[in-house]
């Protein structure tokens, strides 16, 4: 790679959630990286994505995916593709209208709704 350390883009935390309180909280967190993503990091993510896609059909374990349809960090199409290609007989894809990336932090009750759906899904499988 010609310029592996070349800064490509910075993380825009406003894409994570509509929850202003949470955004303010993470803006003060010293452990959160705020720098630029390097070209090497971006290329590595793309390469691993290409390697993972053919493996989706090998997934047979139960899983639950919660995805916001307004997520600008991870595209909904990726979750849909994973769901469609997996061979699990017990799989759930729940799409939250208006939800951003960090669904558990979303305001207006959505975060609570997401967490309750996850707990319910787990409890149904623990009991059976």
Determine the oligomeric state from the structure.
Answer: single chain
Strand order of the largest sheet: 1-2
| Distinct helical segment count | 4
Beta-strand percentage range = 5-15%
Largest sheet: 2 strands, antiparallel
In whole angstroms, the N-to-C terminal distance is 51 Å
Would you report the number of β strands?
Answer: 4
Give the overall average pLDDT: 94
Order of helices and strands: EHEHEHEH
Helical residue percent band? 25-40%
Describe this structure in words.
The protein has a two-stranded antiparallel sheet with strand order 1-2. Strands 3-4 form a two-stranded parallel sheet. It is 39% helix and 15% strand. It has 128 residues and is of the alpha+beta class. The longest helix is centred in the last third of the chain and has 18 residues, at 110-127. The protein is flat, with a radius of gyration of 17 Å. This is Monoglyceride lipase. It holds the Pfam family Hydrolase_4.
Describe this protein with a few key phrases:
two-stranded parallel sheet; 4 strands; 4 helices; flat; single chain; 128 residues; 15% strand
Summed up:
It holds the Pfam family Hydrolase_4. The chain is of the alpha+beta class and 128 residues long.
